[in-house]
Design a protein that fits this description.
Blueprint (H helix, E strand, L loop, with lengths): L10 H7 L19 H51 L4 H13 L3 H5 L3 H22 L7 H29 L3 H24 L6 H22 L13 H16 L7 H10 L1 H33 L5 H38 L1 H4 L3 H30 L3 H24 L3 H25 L21
Length: 465
């Protein structure tokens, strides 16, 4: 007798195979096809560079409109809103979402959509605290400007958290490259267009009006990123429990925040200890160094999901890590050298000597140190991404915790001498030590599929915030 045909589908399966869907069928959504690694990193890094160039242009236009004091107010609000975001939802959560969504191949709406109301409530607390701190710093100022600045700070803090979470979600679920690239520099493009038109027609915005323009552009960007998210499949199996999300967030939080530079501690302390005028000078020196920072951030966003998805193949994972570290080092080094050569003429032409007064030479020297520090701190971001993809984000967190006090101590000592140059030297030294320690940790770590010792941190080494 002929053996039964085991490949013949059951009646209900045959109907499905013929194109008739049953009531229990679940909608599936395949991960969008992505371009090759080379095209991907070039596009994302190019978008990041373009975004930072727009930031630099915005800084120049704002400086010419507001002067040193007004520019210092805007920088302080942005720094505090960034700090409030990074310390909470904008810190470890985006990278945790990237890793979880990439590993499981699920959409954001299916995986974590049920957690959004909880995140919105949490975001109110740090935003309010940051606004209160600004009011404390401006307690001696008269008029209602300080209250308007505090409101703007609270709104920007919530927006920053949302934008960072959306970036992590887009990377994790494999959002098409074009959508990600456009939304990555859209906020700065909108602000630049608004400031450029205002400057061309002779309008002079004050600090509050400038912040309002920034808030409006961020709202448009948030809407665009929400629209770019993949459609839900409504498959209950794709749901990710909040406990799992928070566990990975806690483990990676400090490393993702990167408090050495991610919290804007240097700018916040300069504004708090040296005043808005000195912060205005420091922000001009930092404008060029920020370009290397954005490159490191963009590279880490590319590296994390790509290294995470090959953890089951140790050999391919090691090849990917070596390739990305080499590419990152070469690109960052080229950027640092170029910026160092252009620093003095760019600052002189862009801001004008009247902006700096008698502090032009000191500001240029500070810029040199900050550019070099920015290169080291950017490469450190890539090393952190490798550790997080290997489930060793806790190692990076401990290293960041150990080094952050030295940033605070160095800036505080620099404030005693009223020296911006010493602040730049402090950032360079901390960046160098950080790269050395993280490089050693990356060398010792292994892919999660390479033996029983690989994977997440042992339970006796939790990272809490």
């Amino acid at each position: 007798m002929r053996e039964p045909d085991t490949e013949t589908p059951a009646p209900e399966d045959a109907a499905t195979a013929a194109g008739e869907s049953s009531e229990t069928d679940e909608v599936t959504s395949e991960r969008p096809a992505q371009l090759g690694d080379t095209v991907t990193w070039i596009a994302i890094v190019a978008a990041g560079i373009f975004a930072q160039l727009l930031v630099t242009i915005n800084g120049v236009l704002a400086a010419r409109m507001l002067g040193v004091e007004g520019r210092g107010q805007v920088v302080l609000v942005v720094a505090l809103s960034t700090m409030a975001s990074q310390l909470t939802l904008g810190g470890g959560l985006p990278n945790a979402l990237t890793k979880l969504l990439a590993e499981r191949g699920v959409t954001t709406r299916d995986g974590v959509g049920h957690l959004v109301p909880q995140w919105l409530l949490i975001s109110l607390v740090p935003s309010t605290i940051a606004a209160g701190y600004l009011l404390y710093l401006e307690r001696d100022s008269s008029g209602g400007t300080k209250y308007a600045l505090a409101i703007a700070l609270a709104v920007m803090a919530i927006q920053t958290m949302g934008l960072r979470v959306l970036i992590g979600a887009m990377l994790g679920e494999g959002t098409p490259l074009l959508s990600f690239t456009i939304t990555n520099f859209a906020p700065q493009a909108a602000v630049t267009a608004a400031l450029g038109l205002a400057f061309a027609f002779g309008a002079r915005l004050n600090a509050v009006e400038l912040l309002a323009v920034m808030i409006g552009s961020a709202l448009l960007t948030s809407a665009a990123r929400l629209f770019a998210l993949r459609k839900p499949t409504r498959n209950p199996k794709d749901r990710i429990e909040g406990k799992e999300v928070w566990a990975l967030t806690r483990q990676n939080h400090v490393g993702s925040v990167g408090p050495i530079d991610g919290l804007s501690i240097d700018r916040t302390l300069v504004g708090s200890l040296l005043g808005n005028a000195q912060l205005g000078l420091y922000s001009a020196a930092f404008a060029l160094a920020g370009l290397t920072n954005i490159i490191g951030g963009c590279l880490s966003m590319v590296v994390l999901p790509r290294v995470a998805v090959v953890q089951s193949d140790p050999e391919a994972e090691r090849v990917a890590v070596r390739r990305w570290l080499s590419v990152s080092a070469g690109l960052i080094l080229a950027c640092v050298v170029t910026l160092a050569v252009l620093a003095e003429p760019v600052l002189r032409i862009a801001f004008g000597r009247d902006y700096f007064g008698d502090h032009f030479t000191a500001t240029v020297h500070c810029a040199y140190w900050l550019i070099a520090a920015g290169g080291l701190l950017s490469f450190r971001r890539v090393l952190i991404a490798v550790l997080q993809a290997r489930g060793r984000g806790g190692w990076a967190s401990w290293i960041e915790i150990a080094l952050t006090p030295f940033v605070v101590l160095g800036v505080w000592i620099a404030s005693i001498d009223d020296s911006l140059l010493d602040v730049g030297i402090t950032m360079f030294a901390v960046g160098a030590i950080g790269c050395l320690m993280l490089g050693t940790a990356a060398h010792r770590s292994r892919p999660t599929g390479d033996g029983p010792e690989a994977g997440a941190l042992p339970p006796e080494l939790p990272i809490t915030t």
